[in-house]
């Protein structure tokens, strides 16, 4: 069964189309990286899948569950991290993780071991027991990375996973994503870090002005663009997509 | 000054933009609700002043006493609310990181923040004060000049508590930058309470005394005393003197207007220079101390079984850890305890049971208004305060219906404890009629359930996810609508219940024929009205959140 199926997804803000006629299918064990310039519709797409925005038209099906018909069941299969991971300022990082576990009805014994391992892996220190109001962006990013895996989601949606992380943590994130892929999880990532996309993506999408312009693996995109380097491919394809949309 | 005008005009532009982008229906309903409230308040004050002015010998003096007492209470309330919002406006606002990084004078930042703080802390007082002043003018048949000058005086009056509160916070934080928000607010409150106590002790103001005599001579002496109430050194006295003077075209009004203007400006200039010396320094010191990541015992671990307990425990924990929340609630509770104990003397003043029953009915209305206020301040912001976690809640398998209902039952429980506690103790002190004593807790249950529904429902309908401070959320346009809806609910409930109360009193104490069908009909009306006020606001809130894009 496909983990994610998006059919003719459309979202309008006022008179502006943020996402238009988006179609996408992702299999278990795929990492899909969505690239695009600022304001292209990446975050909107992610929020539409996560159920934080209501589509004007189209369907999102997660693990065979239609998000319109059964939104809560569909949401229980996803894990989502926004580009700005706000945490309640008067909760400690540990309390926040326990809060998320409670929301997803995950028992403490089931995640205690996993958390200890993740804390070690992401270099989470004693600061996890301090109020999150004093955390840096990177610290918050590490906390939300840890909570993401609490309820064992099938589809993982992440907006800009590397922002604020130090090089070591970035490497850990990369390794963790590949590990998740090998476990059969599907990852949908929005990023501007092209080297990261090149390293981990099994499929890359380029979106601009709300429309998916190209989807394919790196070789296919390279063939279409006639370029070899990921940066050149991206610049060429995103430029073409802009030119295409100008009347 | 150029910096200040740039920041100030950008702020005004943001406010205007937010108004012009509002839905026309929302603007119209907002204007309608505010208009109704102003008109209703005016009517109540007008009736009160008309009643007082008709009392022989002491009528006018009594009216002036009410005015002065009102302004004195306003001053203390303004000082308290300015202190509560000051800390977050001058130190906790994220915008300050941007503003202090600009080549802008700290005094310009201070002035724009002072305006913002004064606006948030004072609007509620102004909504009450303006109808009061207009009703006073109409009752005393004041000239046309009375209205613009006295309303202008009200605005000038606001400057003093706003400036004083900011200076107090600056001094405390400059001297003790390591203090936590909780300690700063408590220290400031302690200081203000101490000053108020000293003022009352030293001045022994007649405004706080209760008149207890039937002798005409004593009555005249008392009336003479009433004309010199409160001492001449407090701004509330000057403001009431402005009103008194302007209403009779006396030069006294202009004199006190100039005095108030001079003192307000002097306070603002003093605060300006204090801000110049202390604001930037204390803001930097606070920043250094707030980056402390000291270890805390995790309290959210033992409540991990199920989403309901988790959500509830998170709400309680965040409330306890947010000083602006619990300090304000504590002040409310202290004031209510003082009020309840002050009712102990009621059976001494009112020996006839009919009067005691009337007092208990008035007390019930007052307690309902208190609960309405608490609801707006503490329940309305609860949905907006989910802002930090809305991405996790919104993307989790937890429906907004469940979130609202969890919060609803929790707050209803809290509201019932508060309202029933207040009613039971106050009725014991008042020695209320037994039947009323038994019936009121049942009615209070519906009042609690409705007021929580109104505030939670409107909190979901008009959330402000871009504001951190719960006081500011409650002071926003949605908060104003919820406040006025709550007050309207209490007003309508009191009107419905007044009919059975009147007939019961007339039957029991004045031995008039009973009208049971009307009494039963009123109770059925109250019940139906409450079903509506419990179900509809909650539905509005849930639907709005379900449809909302985050």
Question: Which tags fit this structure?
Answer:
heterodimer; A: 247 residues; alpha/beta; Rossmann fold; 9 helices; 40% helix; globular; B: 550 residues; mainly alpha; 21 helices; 81% helix
Write the topology of this structure.
The complex is a heterodimer of chains A (about 250) and B (about 550).
Chain A: E1 4-13, E2 16-26, E3 31-35, H1 42-50, E4 57-62, E5 65-66, H2 71-75, E6 78-81, H3 93-103, H4 108-122, H5 137-148, E7 155-159, H6 167-182, E8 186-190, H7 194-200, E9 203-208, E10 211-216, H8 218-225, H9 230-245
Parallel strand pairs in A: 3-8, 3-9, 6-7, 7-8
Antiparallel strand pairs in A: 1-2, 1-4, 4-5, 9-10
Helix pairs in contact in A: 3-5, 4-5, 8-9
Chain B: H1 2-20, H2 24-53, H3 59-92, H4 95-100, H5 106-139, H6 146-175, H7 181-203, H8 216-226, H9 235-247, H10 251-290, H11 307-321, H12 323-342, H13 346-349, H14 353-379, H15 381-384, H16 390-394, H17 400-430, H18 434-461, H19 470-475, H20 477-509, H21 516-547
Helix pairs in contact in B: 1-5, 2-3, 2-5, 2-20, 3-5, 3-6, 3-7, 3-9, 5-6, 5-10, 6-7, 6-9, 6-10, 9-10, 12-17, 14-17, 14-18, 14-20, 17-18, 17-21, 18-20, 18-21, 20-21
Keywords (chain B): Membrane, Transmembrane, Transmembrane helix
Pfam families (chain B): ABC_tran_2 (PF16949)
InterPro entries (chain B): ABC_tran_2
Written description of the protein model:
Chain A folds into 2 domains: 1-77 and 154-164 and 186-247, P-loop containing nucleotide triphosphate hydrolases (Rossmann fold); 84-152, no CATH class. Chain A is built from 9 helices and 10 strands. Chain A has helices at residues 42-50, 71-75, 93-103, 108-122, 137-148, 167-182, 194-200, 218-225, 230-245, and strands at 4-13, 16-26, 31-35, 57-62, 65-66, 78-81, 155-159, 186-190, 203-208, 211-216. In chain A, strands 6-7-8-3-9-10 form a 6-stranded mixed beta sheet, with helices on both faces. In chain A, strands 2-1-4-5 form a 4-stranded antiparallel beta sheet. The longest helix of chain A is centred in the last third of the chain and has 16 residues, at 167-182. Chain A is globular and about 50 Å long. The termini of chain A are far apart. The model of chain A has no long low-confidence stretch (mean pLDDT 86). With 550 residues, chain B is an all-alpha fold. Chain B has 21 helices and no strands. The longest helix of chain B has 40 residues, at 251-290. Residues 206-211 of chain B have low confidence and may be disordered. At the A-B interface, helix 2 and helix 3 of A face helix 11 and helix 16 of B. Chain A: Residues 4-234 form the ABC transporter domain.
């Amino acid at each position: 069964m496909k983990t994610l199926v998006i059919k003719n997804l459309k979202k309008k803000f006022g008179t502006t189309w943020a996402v238009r006629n988006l179609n996408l299918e992702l299999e278990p064990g795929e990492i899909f990286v969505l690239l695009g310039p600022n304001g292209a519709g990446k975050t909107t797409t992610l929020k539409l899948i996560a159920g934080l925005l209501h589509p004007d038209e189209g369907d999102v099906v997660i693990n065979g569950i239609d998000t319109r018909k059964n939104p809560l069941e569909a949401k229980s299969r996803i894990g989502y991290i926004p580009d700005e991971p706000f945490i309640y300022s008067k909760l400690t990082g540990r309390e926040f993780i326990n809060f998320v576990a409670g929301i997803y009805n995950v028992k403490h014994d089931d995640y205690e071991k996993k958390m200890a391992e993740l804390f070690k892996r992401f270099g989470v220190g004693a600061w996890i027991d301090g109020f999150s109001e004093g955390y840096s962006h990177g610290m918050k990013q590490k906390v939300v990375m840890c909570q993401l895996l609490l309820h064992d989601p099938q589809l993982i949606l992440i907006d800009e996973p590397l922002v604020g992380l130090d090089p070591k943590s970035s490497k850990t994130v990369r390794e963790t994503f590949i590990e998740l892929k090998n476990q059969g999880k599907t990852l949908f990532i929005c990023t501007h870090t092209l080297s990261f996309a090149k390293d981990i993506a099994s499929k890359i999408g380029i979106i601009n002005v709300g429309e998916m312009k190209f989807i394919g693996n790196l070789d296919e995109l390279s063939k279409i663009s006639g370029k070899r380097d990921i940066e050149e491919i991206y610049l060429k394809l995103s430029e073409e997509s802009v030119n295409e949309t100008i009347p | 000054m150029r910096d200040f005008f740039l920041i100030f005009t950008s702020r005004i532009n943001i406010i205007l933009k937010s108004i012009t982008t509002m839905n026309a229906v929302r603007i119209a309903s907002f204007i309608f609700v505010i208009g109704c409230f102003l008109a209703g308040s005016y009517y109540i004050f007008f009736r009160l002043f008309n009643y007082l002015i008709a009392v022989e010998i002491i009528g006018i003096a009594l009216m002036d006493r009410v005015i002065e007492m009102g302004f004195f209470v306003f001053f203390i309330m303004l000082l308290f609310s300015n202190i509560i919002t000051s800390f977050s406006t001058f130190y906790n606002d994220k915008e300050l990181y941007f503003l202090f990084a600009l080549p802008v004078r700290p005094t310009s930042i201070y002035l724009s923040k002072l305006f913002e703080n004064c606006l948030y802390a004072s609007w509620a007082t102004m909504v009450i004060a303006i109808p009061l002043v207009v009703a006073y003018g109409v009752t005393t048949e004041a000239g046309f000049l009375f209205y613009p000058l006295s309303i202008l005086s009200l605005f000038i009056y606001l400057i003093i508590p706003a400036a004083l509160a900011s200076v107090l916070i600056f001094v405390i934080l400059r001297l003790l930058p390591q203090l936590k928000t909780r300690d700063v607010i408590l220290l400031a409150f302690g200081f203000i309470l101490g000053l108020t106590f000293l003022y009352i002790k030293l001045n022994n103001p007649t405004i706080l005394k209760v008149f207890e005599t039937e002798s005409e001579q004593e009555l005249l002496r008392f009336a003479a005393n009433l004309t010199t109430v409160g001492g001449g050194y407090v701004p509330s006295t000057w403001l009431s003197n402005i009103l008194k003077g302007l209403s009779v075209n006396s030069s006294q009004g202009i004199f006190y207007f100039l005095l108030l203007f001079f003192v307000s400006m002097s306070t603002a200039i003093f605060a300006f220079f204090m801000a110049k010396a202390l604001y930037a320094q204390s803001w930097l010191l606070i920043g250094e101390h707030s980056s402390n990541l000291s270890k805390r015992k995790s309290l959210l671990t033992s409540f991990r079984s199920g989403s309901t307990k988790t959500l509830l425990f998170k709400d309680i924990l965040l409330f306890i850890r947010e000083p602006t929340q619990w300090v304000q609630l504590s002040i409310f509770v202290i004031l209510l305890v003082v009020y309840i104990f002050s009712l102990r003397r009621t059976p001494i003043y009112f020996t006839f049971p009919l009067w005691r029953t009337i007092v208990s009915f008035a007390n019930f209305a007052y307690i309902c208004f208190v609960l309405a206020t608490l609801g707006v301040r503490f329940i309305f912001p609860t949905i907006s305060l989910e802002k930090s976690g809305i991405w996790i809640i919104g993307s989790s398998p937890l429906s907004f219906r469940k979130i609202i209902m969890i919060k609803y039952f929790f707050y209803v429980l809290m509201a019932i404890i508060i309202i029933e506690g207040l009613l039971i103790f106050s009725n014991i002190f008042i020695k209320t009629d037994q039947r009323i004593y038994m019936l009121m807790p049942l009615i209070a249950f519906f009042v609690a359930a409705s007021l929580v529904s109104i505030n939670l429902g409107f909190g979901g309908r008009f959330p402000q996810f871009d504001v951190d401070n719960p006081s500011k959320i409650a002071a926003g346009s949605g908060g104003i609508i919820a406040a006025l809806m709550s007050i309207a609910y209490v007003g309508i409930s009191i009107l419905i219940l007044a009919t059975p109360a009147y007939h019961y009193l007339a039957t029991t104490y004045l031995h008039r024929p009973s009208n049971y069908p009307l009494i039963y009909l009123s109770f059925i009306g109250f019940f139906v009205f409450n079903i509506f006020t419990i179900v509809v606001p909650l539905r509005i809130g849930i639907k709005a959140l379900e449809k909302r894009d985050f």
